Each structure stands twice: as structure tokens, then as C-alpha cells.
Amino acid sequence: MIELKSAQEIDRMAITGQFVGELLAELSGVAAVGVNLMDIEHHARRRIAERGAESCYWDYAPSFGRGPFRNVLCLSVNDAVLHGLPHDYVLRDGDLLSIDMAVGIDGWVADSAVSVIAGTPDPADLRLIEATEVALAAAIAAAQPGGRLGDVCAAIGDVAGSYGYGVNGEFGGHGIGRTMHEDPHVANTGRAGRGMRLDPGLTIAIEPWFCHSTNKIRYDEDGWTIRSADGSRTAHSEHTVAITPSGPRVLTGRPTP
Ligand code: MG
Ligand code: MG
Fold first, then answer.
1. CATH number of 7-250
2. Which of 63, 96, 138, 148 is least crowded, fewest Cβ atoms below 10 Å from its Cβ?
3. What is the distance between the alpha carbons of residues 229 and 222, in angstroms, rounded to a whole number?
4. Is the overall model pTM greater than 0.85, yes or no?
5. pLDDT average, residue stretch 80-99
6. How far is the CA of 82 from the centre of ligand 1 (A)?
7. Residue 66 reports pLDDT greater than 80
């Protein structure tokens, strides 16, 4: 079931989204060479507690993970792309880190992700991150009232194709609002003009993620961390977006450094 949100409810989600955007920007600055992933996780836990927010990840127990998730961040390094488990690992020069976070404040949820490089970037990694950001921007631009969900999905797939990256069909974006995952599924590829109509009040998380040289994935033993099947590098970008009568509204915008 899809619940359209009122303008007031979208404003409430925007309060959560602002916190998520600000914290992700802060964590991006923390993620430097020599920093342990657990320090980034604990930094986020402190901030979330101070704000009185509630992590949507803590105790999250979908069918694929082994046991409930006991972290507030997904931290995915290099070939890991989604659901990376924060663990005892010190970032090295050139590591590509994706930080993904969803929290609720007063019952309204926002979800966002960003990919960054620790230390010296490899140009190929910068291009991969850029592709996810360009795809996200194109998908947001396509999220117009009266349009179709397929417009959003196709925008992502088109950008991936223009960069020469494949798209995996197993994981994509989702409706969001009172909980982290609501209907509809927002695939990272599709056909423009198809699918459900984008009515004002629809709130979705749009999250393109690409692997450098494959569209296949594999899972770690823990059932959580998802990696590129061929070990190539990966990137992920995500925003929570509301369809409004005047166009798409990004709810998780980040302050520019
Ligand atoms: Mg996310
Ligand atoms: Mg998401």
C-alpha cells in the first residue's frame, strides 16, 4: 500500500532529512586515512542519541541478514556496496567508502547515502562515484508530478549505460515515510512512461549504486555485506525525495563543505 503524505507530513520528514544530511556530511569529513570504521559508527551513534533520533537499522532483521543488525550505519568499503557491516578496519589511502544511514525523528524517517574517498583518489573511482551522483540527480529531475515511476528508474539506467556501467536489478530504492521501507520499489532501471503515476505526496528513497565492471553481487558469510561479484569497486548515492505539486523536493540535502 502506498501512503501519500500531506504537505505537513513532508515538512516533518524534511526535519529528519536535514539531520541525516548534516550528519552524513559530518561523517564524510570524519572518514579519513587511519580512521577505524567503528569510530565512524560510534560517532554516528553519539549524534543520533544527542538528537533524540532513532536508527532504522538497529535491530533491522530482513530475510537475508544473519541475526538483527546492531549498527546505525552501513559502511561499505571498496568492493562492498550495500549493507556493509561496520567492523574493526582502519581506512587506507585510496579506499572508497559508502556511508548509508536511515533514522526516524518523531516517527518520520529519512534515508540517504554518500560515497567518498579516503586519501588519494583513483580517477576510476571518482568517475564511478560521479556516475551514481549524476544518476541520482537525473532521477530526481525525472520525479515530476504527473510523471511515471518508470521515468525515475529509466533515468538511472540511462546514466549507468552512458558511463558504461551495468545495473543490478535485485536492490534499488523504495517508498519511505513512517518506516524505512515502504511501497513502491524504485528499481535502478526501467522504461520511461511506465509504472505508477507520481502523485504529489509520494515520498521515495532513490538510490543508484553501480559496480565498476559487473552487475552481479555476492554476499559475505554474515548475510549482510553485499559485494561486487568480481571484486571491482562500487559506489552508492541516495536521497529521500518528495513529489510535490511544484516538482521534486530533496529532503536529505547536505550542506556543501
Ligand atoms: Mg539507505
Ligand atoms: Mg534506502
1. 3.90.230.10
2. 63
3. 16
4. yes
5. 96
6. 9
7. no
